[in-house]
């Protein structure tokens, strides 16, 4: 029973981290759009925002892969 509870807490923590990272990706995407519209082309804020977006995306993918390998995210063998 305790093992099942700990496994559910780990899975919930991984899901929470992934959701936070995806929200950070969306926020970075919109900040990049804002800087693209507002800046006059002399500042590097758009590139910096999009670089953060790529970093958050890569981190989310790595966390998903590691969580799957460690068994925190259960694998479903079916096509759906």
Attribute tags:
80 residues, mainly alpha, 2 helices
Describe the structure.
The chain has 80 residues and is mainly alpha-helical. It has one domain (14-70). It has 2 helices and no strands. Helix 1 packs antiparallel against helix 2. The protein starts with a helix and ends in a 10-residue tail after the last helix.
Overall mean pLDDT stands at 83
Oligomer: single chain
Task: Give the class from helix and strand content and strand pairing.
Answer: mainly alpha
Q: What characteristic shape results from the CA principal axes?
A: elongated
Q: Count every beta strand, where a strand is a DSSP E run of 2 or more residues.
A: 0
Q: How much strand content do the residues show? A: under 5%
Count of distinct structural domains: 1
Residues in helices, as a percent range: over 70%
The termini sit apart by 29 Å
The helix/strand series, from N terminus to C terminus, equals: HH
Q: Uncertain spans, ≥5 residues at pLDDT below 50?
A: none
Tally of helical runs: 2
User: What's the gyration radius in Å?
Assistant: 17 Å
Short description:
By secondary structure, this protein is mainly α. The chain has helices at residues 2-38, 45-70.
Task: Describe the secondary structure blueprint for this structure.
Elements: H1 2-38, H2 45-70
